[in-house]
Amino acid sequence: MPEQAGTESGIIVVELSADHELEADHVDAVVEVKASAFFTGAAALTNAKEVAALVRGLEDLGVPRTAFTLQAVQAETSEGLLSRSSSATYTVRIRLDQLERVGDVLAACTTLKQATLRELRWGYARELAARQEWIEALAGESVKKARRVAAGLGVKLAGLHRFTERTSESLPFNPGRGGYGGGGEDVVPVTSSAGYGKVRASLGFTVSHRKKVHVMATAEFRTAPAPES
Question: What confidence tier does 131 reach under pLDDT thresholds 50, 70, 90?
């Protein structure tokens, strides 16, 4: 844990930092499905046969119906007329909480010629709580460091003057490219629609996903002369 301390005008400044890894606990698979009929809302999940086939196939793998959400639908009209017989493209989000099943689910998506995996959105439900824990740990270490510095200088701490914190993230961890990097944020776009095999090759596919978080804290403490012995 890098640290730095100094004194200026009766102030002890302590700077600490630490690196942490946060592992994703869920992923949203965004799939586009081309269908021969147009429906809106939740009805598309059961009435558009191509979408319904995708839902049934993933339910057979243990994905619950509640994991599916229709995000968008784009209808293709003939001569400007929109009807139930109009073809449409549906964008479906599939929430996967069992990351060890991601590979099986992605393979199932490709059994339907009308389905194309577009992106994976990795999520971290514990992120806010984890960041708070990391900052609290740095705050505690700041007090210990300031006390050691004060003892060495022959003064005592009179109270906290200012405390600031900062966090930054690296690019997501990508084992297929040798470490961190190779992506934008925690969304992995999939540009190939040729099947699971090519998706695996282009993504360096893994069923886990981590990102690196750098946490920094600066604490300034007022000092007072130590009591004479």
Answer: very high
What CA–CA distance (Å, rounded) separates 21 from 214? Answer: 9
Output DSSP code: residue 85: T
Tokens 């090519």: give the residue. 198
Q: Which CATH architecture has domain 7-24+124-174+203-228?
A: 2-Layer Sandwich (3.30)
Cα 43 from chain centroid?
Answer: 30
User: Does pLDDT of 193 surpass 70?
Assistant: no
What is the distance between the alpha carbons of residues 18 and 1, in angstroms, rounded to a whole number?
5
Rounded distance, CA 210 to CA 189, Å? Answer: 16
Asked whether residue 192 carries a pLDDT value surpassing 60, the answer given is no
Query: What's the CA gap between 78 and 14, in Å, rounded?
Result: 69
Those residues whose C-beta lies under 8 Å from the C-beta of residue 196, and which sit 6 or more positions away, are 106, 107, 109, 110
Q: Which residues contact 128 (CB under 8 A, 6 or more apart)?
A: none
In terms of Cβ atoms closer than 10 Å to its own Cβ (0-12, 13-18, 19+), residue 207 is middle
Type of residue found at 69: T
pTM: 0.69
Give the SS3 label for residue 154.
Answer: coil
Q: Which two tokens stand for residue 134?
A: 């990391």
Domain ranges in the chain are 7-24+124-174+203-228, 26-123
Q: Hey, what CATH class is 26-123 in?
A: alpha beta
Q: What is the mean pLDDT of residues 115-126?
A: 89
Pick the residue with more confidence: 191 or 143? 143
